[in-house]
Amino acid sequence: MAETKAIGVVGSGQMGSGIAQIAAVAGVDVWLHDSDAQALRRAKNSISSSLQRLIAKGHLSKEVGSDALRRLRFTSNLEDFRSADVIIEAIVESEDVKKKLFSQLDRIAKASAILASNTSSISITRLASATMRPYQVIGMHFMNPVPTMKLVEIIRGADTSDETFVAVKTLSERLGKTVICSQDYPGFIINRILMPMINEAFFTLYTGVATKEDIDAGMKLGTNQPMGPLELADFIGLDVCLSIMKVLYAGLGDSKYAPCPLLVQYVDAGRLGKKRGIGVYTYGKPPEVVKPSPRL
Ligand code: CAA
After folding, report:
1. Are residues 145 and 257 in the same domain?
2. What pLDDT, on the 0 to 100 scale, is given for residue 296?
3. Closest Cα partner for 40 from 83, 6, 9?
4. CA 140, CA 31: separation in Å to the nearest integer?
5. In terms of domains, do 50 and 102 share one?
6. Are residues 97 and 173 in the same domain?
7. How far is it, in rounded angstroms, from Cα 129 to Cα 70?
8. N or C terminus of the chain: which is more exposed, having fewer CB within 10 Å?
9. Angle, helix 238-252 to helix 229-236, in steps of 10 degrees
10. How many CB atoms lie within 10 A of CB 193?
C-alpha cells in the first residue's frame, strides 16, 4: 500500500484543526475544509498560534513549524479533495449530516481514497452504507486535545478491508499516536466506558450524594485522572456527552445507559460546557441571561 501523501480534513473545529495540525507536522500535505469562512480563519489562527507555542517550548523546530504551515491549505470547496489519499471527517455528530457528506465525498474522492470518520459513537457500518466503497470506510477516532492525547481508536465497519485498516493504522502511527482497534458497536471502546462514568457522576450530583467539587476532586485525586468527570464533561461538551449516551441507550437497549435527567436539563438550558462559558461550572464572566420581553 502506497504511503499517505495528502489528506483532506472536513470540519475546522477543535478536532479537525488538531488533526490537520499534527498531520502537517508529520509531513503530510493537508487540505482543511469548512463551509464557514469565519471558522476557517479561526482554525488558521489557532493552528498557527499552537505551532508557535510548541516552537517556543522547544517541542518543535522552527523549520518543522514553517514546513507544517506551508503544507496546510484551507478551503471551502470539497472538490479540492480530489487528490487526497485519506479524507477524515470531523463535522457535527449527526448521522444524517455525516451520511450526506460521505455520499458527496464518495463522488469526489479518487477511487483508491479512504474515507475516515472521527465520530465518537456513530456506526461506521451505517456511514459506509452511504457510499459505494464500504471496504474503504473506517473510523479514526482522535481524542481531545488532539495534539496532546496519544490515542487513536480505529473502528472497523462490517466491510472495512484489511488494507484500509493497515493504511489508517500506519498513518495514525506516523502522526505519533498509539492505535487501539474496536469493532463497530455503540460507543466503541472509549465512550462505551467513559460516558457511563460521566453519566454516573451526573447521577451522583443529581441525587445529592456530593458536591460537584467533591465528585471531581475524588476522582482526580482518588483515581489519578487528570480531570474530574464533571470537569471533563464540560471540556468535551455536555451536548456531545448527551448525544453519546443516547447512542448507547438506543443501541444497547439497557436502562443502565439512560442519560441522567440533570445532564438532559443542562443541555436543554444551553449549559453546554466550556465552549459556552457555562456547563457544570462557570468559566470566565457568566453569560448574560436574556430576559423575556414584557407582554404588550
Ligand atoms: N490544544 C492543544 N494542546 C493542549 C490543549 C489544547 N486545547 N490543552 C492543553 N494542551 C497541551 C499543553 O500545551 C501542554 O503541552 P506540553 O506538556 O507539551 O507543554 C499539555 O497539553 C498539558 O497542558 P497544561 O499543562 O496546560 O494543562 P494540564 O496539565 O492541566 O493538561 C489536559 C490539560 C491535557 C487537557 C489534561 O487535563 C487532560 O489530559 N485532561 C483529560 C483529557 C481527556 O480525557 N481527553 C479525552 C476526552 S474524550 C474524547 O476526546 C473522545 C470523545 O469522543 C468525547
Report:
1. no
2. 47
3. 9
4. 17
5. yes
6. yes
7. 36
8. C
9. 100
10. 10
- Asked whether the beta carbons of 228 and 215 are under 8 A apart, the reply is yes
Residue with the three cell numbers 473510523: 139
Task: Tell me the per-residue pLDDT of 153-193, one tens digit each, with 9 for 90 and over.
Answer: 999 999 999 999 999 999 999 999 999 999 999 999 999 99
One-letter amino acid of 152: V
72 CB within 6 A, ligand 1: no
Instruction: Give mean pLDDT, residues 50-61.
Output: 96
Q: What is the pLDDT of residues 215-256, one digit of tens each?
A: 999 999 999 999 999 999 999 999 999 999 999 999 999 999
pLDDT (tens digit per residue) in 23-40: 999 999 999 999 999 999
Look at residues 159, 182, 205 and tell me which one is the last residue of a structural domain. 182
pLDDT of residue 285: 73
Say which DSSP state 282 is in.
B
Question: 146 C-alpha to center of ligand 1: Å?
Answer: 8
227 lines ligand 1 (CB under 6 A): yes
CATH of the domain at 71: 3.40.50.720
C-alpha 34/C-alpha 20 separation (Å) is 12
Residues 6+ apart with CB under 8 A from 158: 125, 128, 134, 184
Distance from the CA of 261 to the center of ligand 1, in angstroms?
Answer: 28
Domain extent at residue 129: 6-182
Q: What is the pTM of this model?
A: 0.93
